[in-house]
Predict the structure.
Amino acid sequence: MGYLAFLLAILHAYKALSEEIFWDTTVRLAENMTLECVYPSADTLTQMEWFKVTSVEKEAIAIFSPTHGVVIRTPYADRVSFVNSSMAPNDISLSFHNVSEADVGYYSCFLHTFPQGTWQKVIQVVQSDSFEIAEPLISHIVSEPGENVTLTCQLQMKWSVQQVTWEKIQPRQIDRLTCCNFLQGRNYTSKYRRQVSTTCTQGSRRSFIIIPNVTASDSGLYRCCFQASTGENDTLVMRLTITAGRTSSRYIPFLAGGMALLLLLVILITTTVTVISCNRRRERHKRDLFAESWDTQIKAPSNCRSPISASLPTDDAREDVYVNYPTFSHRPKTRV
C-alpha cells in the first residue's frame, strides 16, 4: 500500500508540474517592470498579497493591510515597491527594480474584499524582445471618446469551435479580455481594468466584445483567437484608434467623399479658369492682329492716281508762267 501511495503522489506531482497555469496578463521581462493589479470593483479591501507562483508552491513577496500597512519579504525588500504610494484601495500594482532572468515566471495578486470575498489576478512574466504580431489587420476602427465600441471577428473555417479568446496587445504587455470555453460551458471573468462585455454562444462562428465609454487609452491592437476541438487555431487582429477630436468611424466615409468632391471641384475650377484665360488671350491676340492689319491698309500708299494732279502738271499741259513787275532804279534822286 505504501508503494502504491508513493506512485500516486508522483503522478499527482507530475500532473501538477505539467499543468499550465491560466494567466490574465503577460508582461515582458525588463530591468524595471511593473505588474499591474487594479481591482475593478468598489468593494472594501481588507487585505492583499503578492506571490510568485509555481505549479507546486507559492512564494510570498508582499502583503498590504489598510489597518497594519505594508510588509515586503526579505528576498524582495530592496527591489520591490508598490507603485501607488498612497495605497489607493483599488490599485495595488507592484514595481520591480534590477530584474534578472530568475524573475521569469508567474505572479499572483490575491485580494480579500468585503462583501465579495476573494479576487485573484495571475500575471506571467516572459523573456521576450517584444509582443509584435505577424498576422495582418482585418480592420481599423476609428472612434471618438465616450462612444461604445463593438469589435467583431468572424471565423471562416468550418471548425467545431472549442474556445474563443480576446486579447489586447501592447508593446510590453498582453491583457486577456475574455475567454469563452464552450466544451466546459464557462465564461472567463476578465481581470482587465476596463469593463469589457461579450456573449458566449455554443456553436457560433462569430464573436464580439463591447468596450463602453472608450478613452484614448483604449487605442491599440486587439486579437481574437478561435480554437478548434482538433487543436487548430485561427487568429484575427484589428486596430482601434480613439481620436482626440470629434471624429467618429461612421463619419469617415462621408468625410472621404466630401474631400474627393472638394478636390474634384478645385480641379474643375482650375481647369475652367485656365480655359477662360486662354480664350481671352486668344481673342486679344486676334484683335491686335486685326487692328494692325487695319492700320497697315490705311497707311499704305495707293496705286491709283487722280486724273488731274494738284501738284504735278502733265507733260501735255506744261507752260511757262511769267510775272510782270516794274524795274526801279536803285540810284537816289537828287533834290532841287
The longest strand covers residues 44-53. The longest helix spans residues 252-299. Helices lie at 2-18, 252-299.
